[in-house]
# Entry
Amino acid sequence: MLFSNINGINKKKIVLLPHNNPDGDALGSSLALLFYFRKLKHDVYLVSPTGYPESFQWLPGIKDIIVFSDRTQSLVKKKIINSDYVFFIDFNHLSRINNIKDFFLYSKAKKILIDHHPFAHHPFPFFFDFMFSDSTVAATSILVFRFISDMNNLDKIDKDIATCLYVGLMTDTGFFRFPSVTSETHFIAGKLIKKGINIDNIYDHLQEKYSENRLKLLSKALKKLKIIKKYRTAYTSIQASDINFYSYKQGDTEGIITYGLGVKNIVFSVFFFQEKEKYPIKISFRSKGNFDVNMFAKKHFKGGGHINAAGGMSEKNLPEAIEYFLNIIPNYYKNLMFSI
# Structure
């Protein structure tokens, strides 16, 4: 019924919602759907709860994103209230869209989830009318490809849609290096390449490019890097005074967490980020092998994600958050020592 309604001749009003601070997969999936629904002649809007990293400014359609703010709040509310469908892309917890979630008190739109993250222990699955959810796939972009395929519209994937989906695949698989990569991942990548995408250009844009300030922040984080050999763990942090001093821009701390995992015998890396004074501490978790950071983040830091990549937060100040983390780690001695 969903497919026939959206695939039909009647124009529908559609809102696309990625999560806050959208990454390459969230942006790629959302922009691909934006182009796709436009091809079906629907009235479609893409709303981001926050801004996005400057490193994605080159993506096709990126200028069409409505960034939620005080200035755009009334417009976003109106679009959601009057929409026929709202797509929730690359997340499954309403906290990831900030205050936008309040607008659904007034909306009768069908709510459709497209996401590859495991569900946390909360009632939100019942919030959605339709769910395209599979936590075994490497990226939400794969589910968008499946969605288009299920509607028998693979012929509508053009170079722009393929570029956006390919970016989603690349960024959420670490350039096709993560254990989540399967034959399907490469099969879809091959299909997208046949649409004429410029792989060299995409790689060039996605390669790490460091501004002077970003390098200084990285230097600061590396100086703070602590190694706990007994627990095969590394952690570091950036505090508000650091980013104020170095003219922080969104995305400048991307990649810091990977340096801990690059240390020999380390299987667990943690990055604490205090973006603002008196602001909840954002925490990123990465692991190797079978140490499940998704469960770790859920249990201790109100977060979640994937087995080897997750995020969380703490209401404590930075020293207290780190101290709490250090007190927890001994409980995972066996898990960390025997992670393979």
